[in-house]
Amino acid sequence: MTTERERRFVGPRRGQLIFALVFLGLSALLLALIGEQTAWVKKTRLFAQPRFWPAVSLGGMVLLGGLHLYQLPWRRVSRYDLWEARQWGRSLEYALWFLAYVFLVPLIGYLPVTLAFVPLLARRMGYRSRFMMGICLCFAVAVVVLFKGFLSVKIPGALLYEYLPAGLRSFFILYL
Amino acid sequence: MDLILSAIDILMRWDVALALLAGSVGGVLIGAIPGVGPAVAIAILLPATFSMDPIVGLTVLLGIYGSSMYGGAIPAILINTPGTAVNALTTYDGYPMTARGEPRRALSLAYSASFFGGVFSVICLILFAPVLAKVAPMFGSREIFLAALLGLILVVVAHRGQALIAGALACFGIFLNSIGMEPVKYTQRYTFGQDFLGGGINLIVVVLGLFALSQAFVLLMDEDEKVHLTKLRGGMFQGLRELARHPRVAGVSASFGVLMGMVPGVGEFTAQFMSYTYAQKSSKRPQDFGNGSSEGLIAAETANNAVPAAAMVPLLALGIPGEALTAMMLSVFYVHNVVPGPGLFQNDMDFVVALYLALLILNVLVLIFLLFATRSLIQVVKIPNRFLGVAILTLSFVGVYSLRNSATDCMVAAAFGILGFILKRLALPAVPIILGMVLGGIMEVKLRAGMARVKEPWDFINRPIAFILFTIIILVLASHIFRVWKERKELKEAEWQNKTSSTSFGRLLSRRKNSFLKDRGKEVRGRHSKLLRRLKGLF
Q1: CA distance A154 to chain B (A)
Q2: Cα distance between residue B291 and residue B496, in whole Å
């Protein structure tokens, strides 16, 4: 039966205990490394010490994180917590999609990679219709033209562009 | 008058006009799409604005900030899903109006109330600017440190029921800011010998991860929803007339928005809550609130739209952002070597007034756009969630990669994206991390500078403003502790109510005595004393 304490808890139950444990564990680990990772400078006042703010912040993380863990109405990891942790793991797939996009752009080029990335990810998401694929291609072209062509954001030309004919090469490097 | 003329002079440029138009229309569109929100859009667009003039870049970002709430009212009213988080209260009275066949009335009333709130706050602040210009120079290092500390404390205590973890996350933000080369003694802090950590962790990378990438992950893992839209017929002007019948509710709500907007860390939610409560208590028909009350809708929309202009006050006057969106805008100032703070009010007052005038024009543009384009605009609500996720992931690349062309930045952003995703799933706040990063940096510099001239602890608060700020900090902490104590007491009472036993002290002692006298108690105590004797025997 749900207790009064559980009923008053803000947010879902699943995953809270794991998050609080990991947060506290990592904070304590970082605090334990403070002597190694920060310096104490002689003849310097406490507030000007390089170690002062890491100590305050990590101390706060351990203290408040520990109190948060203590205040949680649950003491045991349930199967819902493990299911939630698996959901967190599922987001890794999309982080990897993003990183693949990041690593391919300097090699193949912003426009070609975006033209492939958007429809492929949309397909992975379950969109199969020609209409959606068309929208994906239009969106990809619009993003590249708007940001690199029009707003001139800093995205370097790709290695592949070096093999293009001279006239096209500079246009591709500058605008696509 | 000269000040306003020179401010108009700053705005009379084609690129500023274009920025105003793009910001206002873009902001409305972004606000109208549930699941995007201004934070995502501002995070993605930040690096693109670095190449623009400060006034142009800030106008685009302000446009998105100021107009997204107008757009956010559309799905809140039509499909009961707030476009931005601050439109949640709009659903209370907006959707019931749609349900009884008055979507047009609800929308036009929301637009009119938002317009009134926006214009009211800008006019208040333009009139208030000379006073601010006189007060701002009184803020030295100590006062700015205390104001930043107050902002951080307010952000933490504003998360009711989650203050402990919000505080821990704010400390995490301060820790993130301290990573890298320390600028005074030139020592490394938590770099683990890695070069990429030597320069510290970039705020924009964290912002993009926590807001944009995490939102993309949420949408990509979500299901597409089928949206049924109500058809809109007729004009949208009736709301202006209806608003004129409730000047008291609109005026008080806008005033709450202005006041709450100026306090760092408080913002739209508190302003809306106060306005809505006031409107309900002072209404002749309080029973209509939550069932399609026009006064409720006016209170919610006026209050939230009065906040953006007011939220610029602590940012411009003291360099202290009160929430995540203004924290992002701070980085635009830094990139252009414009340091917000007392100096800005003293030396570039025309720039400050120009920003306020830009907000005023923006509100007019948005109202005109919405009055004529709502019927076409509502179609954006139909964009499927997963496709939005794909779009945000694609656009986030521009935001992160164009900063320094660094794949490491993208990896850090992806890591923060996963952290933001976890926080969203657990309904934990990400904003304290961002404010911890920004305010932590300010506090470190200002405390070091402030303590250099302090001999005794009392000297730190011996100036009037420092003393007032210190007193407010103590009051806020004391009221929070009192609230927590009261909540614990209520919890205990509620827990006791579930039990059949009496809670009186005498009965408690009586039950304790009975348990001591019962056979089972005797048996257990006998076993324990036997074990204790054995233990003593060992020594």
Answers
A1: 5
A2: 36
